[in-house]
Design goal:
The complex is a heterodimer of chains A (251) and B (428). Chain A is an alpha/beta fold and 251 residues long. Chain A is 39% helix and 28% strand. The longest helix of chain A has 15 residues. Chain B is 23% helix and 37% strand. The N and C termini of chain B lie far apart (52 Å). In chain B, strand 1 and strand 2 form a beta hairpin. Chain B is globular. The chains are: A alpha/beta (251), B alpha/beta (428). At the A-B interface, helix 2, strand 7 and helix 3 of A face helix 7 and helix 8 of B.
Chain lengths: 251, 428
């Protein structure tokens, strides 16, 4: 599904290389977690895959279901099935959450040549999904993320993911700013979306999120590369001993 | 000396082209006084401090510049609102297109009929607030309006108006030059909503004087635009009594030159005045909001909220002043003017001012210019919203603070829909 091969990325405004040859293959139905110390390039990887400005791909490739996503605009990547749950979701005053969601859903449908969702159908679906995520109707009416708590913002990200039904979901430090209850709720939302056709890339610092979202594979990233891969036990090792031993081992 | 002579010549040429309407004694007297004011002050030019950001040439020249009729848009703004509609075509009342003027809680007449009466309440309002508004800043185009207005509507609100009154201005002649003067008098406890829409004329000079008695409330929502070549100067002069309210919002889309002046006197304690505007334009669009609010009573609140979206060399102007007189204690004055510049060719010129002579007040003002927030744009695009549509959503987001000043949910939604439609058409 998502194939990243030898990806090298520089920061555009600084003469600095962030990713130095990332290789990763994610199949539909699997959950991959990437862990690593601060500054290792985890968030850069998520931004580069979703098309944020400011990064230059100098070498390598990234494809989603065989399509070269690096050549696409951010909205084209989204319509192709890529979703990034932001670490810091943006507040947009003056744009209702519901308006934004419906605009996004229909923009993607239009881009894929599908019929747009009617207002009535959209309302029915969004209410049902919001209920599952314990998002009340009032939150849907409010401007996007404005005045939301950290937990509400992350639940709103998962609601967007549930509405857009992407093929490949990237969660960038979704656990940051969440208390235990909120993390459980968000994880339940993510787990509800797990199916054979959908892949997940979970970027996190901590094992605790992986207690709720059980990964199939765990990768350790350091200095712009994936330096070690393994099963869920790798995250437990990091939790217990930190990154020092692993980094020393691969040095 | 040459400049003074030029100003005098321009004024004389403009006045020569006008025919001052006749009427009863009080109206004739008010018009003569206003004419004298124009002759004394002279029409504005770029040397006047109050016009340094906006070139008044085409507003003062003898002939109205031509403005092609905008024929694409036939939709009736506020068409979904249950309202009493009064239509002016190129500044002339059109009885056939207007509704019957009877409305519970209100009496409505044409200005020309009121002016014929020997005794009429309008005598105490016509040109009165306009004259008060000439100090400390001269507003000669308002005086010109009082002198030469050929039509207008006179509204006396004695209770709660049964429905909004919609003044709809149609533009039918490419060289039309319309001067309209409206009067609105609200008795104690009265309540009315006035809606205005339409391009009106190739050149439009409109004045509205509003006297709001104790406990009364005046609501105003206006849309101007889509007829790009038109030029307009408008004045609203308002005086507020105790615990009264004035709330005005204007949406402007296109128009080569628009100057909206709002002059408000808070003369009664605990009064509230909110004036807001959202303007969007491209190219040679020039939009000027000039506001002067005088606090002359205790515990009054005023808000000025103006937002402009400018592109392809468009210019936005804001001149806003809060004057707090001695004794106007506990004043709460707020003023914000912001522009969203969608490219590097457009400009926003702002002159926010506070002048305060009381010592127990809260007054703030802010003025900023900025571009689209790239982080927010990426957020929307990452959800699949194409760049143009995402830019429009962020533009609406920027304008929201001003649009939110409209209290009525239906009217607010209609204005938001108009703004969104305009953005979508422009994108298309």
């Amino acid at each position: 599904m998502l194939e990243i091969k030898n990806l090298h990325v520089d920061l555009e405004e600084e003469d600095k290389t962030i990713l130095k040859g990332v290789n990763l293959s994610i199949e539909g139905g699997s959950v991959h977690a990437i862990m690593g110390p601060n500054g290792s390039g985890k968030s850069t990887l998520s931004y580069v895959l979703s098309g944020k400005d400011g990064y230059e791909v100098t070498k390598g490739s990234a494809t989603l279901e065989g399509k070269d996503i690096l050549e696409m605009e951010p909205e084209e990547r989204a319509s192709a099935g890529l979703f990034l749950a932001f670490q810091y979701p943006i507040e947009i005053p003056g744009v209702g959450n519901m308006t934004f969601l419906r605009t996004a859903v229909n923009a993607q449908r239009k881009a894929r040549g599908e019929e747009e969702m009617s207002a009535a159908e959209f309302l029915k679906v969004v209410r049902a999904k919001a209920k599952d995520l314990k998002i009340d109707a009032d939150m849907l009416k409010r401007p996007v993320n404005v005045g939301f708590s950290g937990g509400e913002k992350k639940r709103n990200e998962i609601l967007q993911m549930a509405m857009l039904e992407p093929k490949m979901c990237i969660l960038d430090e979704t656990d940051s700013g969440l208390d235990v209850d909120a993390m459980k709720l968000v994880s339940e939302g993510v787990n509800a979306l797990r199916d054979a056709g959908r892949g997940f890339l979970v970027i996190t610092h901590y094992q605790r999120l992986l207690d709720h979202i059980k990964p199939d594979f765990v990768h350790i990233m350091a200095d712009g590369r994936i330096v070690k891969s393994g099963g869920p036990e790798l995250a437990l090792e990091v939790e217990k001993n930190g990154y020092a031993d692993i980094l020393a081992e691969v040095a | 000396m040459a400049a003074v002579q030029k100003k005098s010549d321009t004024t004389a040429a403009r006045l020569e082209g006008l025919s001052i309407p006749t009427g009863g004694a009080w109206a004739t007297s008010a018009r003569a006084d206003a004419l004298a004011r124009v002759q004394s002050i002279g029409l504005p030019d770029r040397r006047d401090e109050y016009w340094k950001f906006t070139r008044p040439d085409t507003l003062v020249q003898a002939e109205a510049p031509r403005a092609a009729l905008f024929t694409e848009d036939k939709e009736t703004i506020f068409g979904e609102v249950d309202r009493l509609q009064i239509v002016f075509v190129d500044g002339v009342f059109d009885a056939d297109q207007s509704d019957d003027l009877s409305l519970e809680g209100v009496s409505i007449e044409r200005l020309r009929d009121a002016a014929e009466a020997d005794i009429h309440w309008a005598k105490d309002l016509y040109g009165v607030l306009e004259t008060r508004g000439q100090d400390p800043v001269a507003r000669p185009l308002a005086a010109l309006n009082t002198a030469a207005a050929t039509d207008g509507i006179v509204i006396h609100v004695t209770g709660k108006a049964a429905k909004p009154i919609h003044l709809r201005y149609l533009h039918a002649e490419e060289t039309s030059d319309a001067i309209l003067h409206h009067l609105v008098k609200l008795e104690a406890g009265a309540d009315v909503t006035i809606l205005e829409s339409g391009p009106a004329a190739a050149r439009f000079n409109k004045c509205m004087e509003i006297d709001i008695a104790d406990g009364a409330a005046f609501h105003h929502v206006r849309t101007q635009g889509r007829d790009h070549e038109r030029r307009a100067v408008t004045h609203m002069f308002t005086r507020l009594g105790n615990k009264s309210a004035f709330k005005s919002f204007t949406m402007t889309a296109n128009g080569v030159l628009t100057r909206n002046e709002c002059i408000i006197e808070l003369t009664g304690d605990d009064a509230i005045a909110h004036v807001a505007g959202a303007a969007m334009g491209d190219g040679d669009f020039h939009h000027d909001d000039t506001v002067f609010i005088t606090h002359d009573a205790e515990r009054c609140e005023s808000r000025q909220v103006f937002k402009k979206v400018l592109r392809n060399g468009a210019t936005g102007v804001f001149q806003g002043k809060i004057l707090v007189k001695a004794g106007a204690q506990k004043t709460d004055g707020y003023q914000i003017s912001q522009s969203l510049l969608l490219d590097g060719d457009s400009q926003f010129l702002a002159k926010p001012e506070l002048e305060i002579y009381a010592d127990d007040v809260i007054c703030s003002h802010g003025s900023t210019s900025g571009a689209i927030d790239e982080e927010a744009l990426f957020y929307l695009r990452a959800r699949g919203v194409p760049e143009g549509q995402a830019t429009d959503l962020l533009t609406l987001s920027f304008l929201a603070e001003a649009v939110d000043e409209i209290e009525d949910d239906g009217l607010r939604e209609e204005v938001t829909g108009l703004l969104a439609g305009w953005l979508e058409r422009r994108r298309g």
